[in-house]
TrEMBL record:
Protein name: 6-phosphogluconolactonase
Pfam families linked: Lactonase
GO molecular function terms attached to this record: 6-phosphogluconolactonase activity
Family in the record: Belongs to the cycloisomerase 2 family.
Species whose genome carries this gene: Rotaria sordida
Amino acid sequence: MSNQTFLIGTGVESIYACSLSSSGQLQLLNEIKCGQGSSWLLRRNDLLYVANEYIDKIETFIIDDHIQGKLTLKNTISSIGNTPCSLDIDSTGKWFAVANYGHQGTSNVVLFPLNNLNLPEEKNAQINTIDGRGPNPDRQDHSHCHQVLFYQNYLYVVDLGTDTLNIYRFNNVNGEVSLIGNRIKTEAGAGPRHMIFHPNKSLAFLCNELNSTTNVYRINASCEQLEYLQTIKTRRQEDENDSSKENYPAELQLTPDGKYLLVSNRGDENLVIFNINENNNEILSVKEHLDCRGSFTRYFTFDPTGRFLLVANQKSNNLVCFSYNRDSGTYTFVSQLDNIQSPQHMVFL
C-alpha cells in the first residue's frame, strides 16, 4: 500500500493536505488558503466543495494534484443562509445540497443546480425551511439544520433546533422537495446532529448533541419511513456524574466491516464504541470507550483500506491515528500529528 493523501477542513482560513503511510504515520504535505471555517469538505472526482462556516460561502476547488493535495480555487457562491455545515450531492449529480445551521441568522436547506462544469449556481436554487423550536433556549430558539443527506432518492435533513428528522421526496428535475408524512421527533431537547445508514442492515443511527444519546431506527423497504427502536447513552456513568463536565456528541461512523458504531464525545474526550447486535430489543450495546488523545473530537473517519482510524481533535489542534484490528475489533495508537489548527473534517483523495 502506498501513501494515501487526505485533506483536513478547519475552523481557520486553511485546508491542510496530509499523507497517511502504509504503517500509519502522518505527515503534513502543504497548507492551502481558503475562506474562514472550512468545516465540511465534499469531494467528487477532481473537485472539492467546501462549506465556509464563518463567512456563509461555498467554495469549489479543482484538485490539481491528488498526491500532494494541491488545490486551485474555481468558484465561490453564497450559501444563501447562515453557517453552512453540511454538503451532499444527489445520485444524478445534478443537485448540490447545503444545510445552513443558522448560528446567528437564517437556517435552511438549499438545493443548488450544478452546471455542466459541476459548479453550483445560485440561480434557480431551491430554498427550504423548517418551522419550530425546541425546549433549550440557548441552542433551540429556532430551526438549526445540521445535516443534509441523500439516500435512496430521498433527502434526509437532521434539525437540531426542532428535534426532528425530516424525510423528503426529491424531484431531480427541478430540485423541489416535499415532506413525507410527519417530521420524526426525537426526545425533546435531544438536539439531533448527524445520522448514518448501515450498508447491509435496514438500520439508521442518529447521534444527539444536546443529551448525549444515540437513536436507532429500522428503515422500511422503500426507505421512506423510519421505525424507532432504541435510545442509548453515549457517556460513561462516571462522566455523567461529573458535574464539571459538559459533553456534546459530534460525529458517528460505522467500522468498515459494519460490526460496530462509533460516536465521538466532545467533552468526555472519547469515542464510544457500540456493538451492533441482532437483538431487536437492544440493537446497540456499549463495547468500550476509546480515549481520543486530544480535546473536542469534531470528526473522525476510517481510511479507504479500513486499516486506520483518524481522529480530528478540534481544541487540542491535533490529529491521531489508530490501527483497527477487524478480527478483535480493537484499536492501537499508531501516530499523532500536531499543530493542525482547529481540525474539523477530513476527506481522502
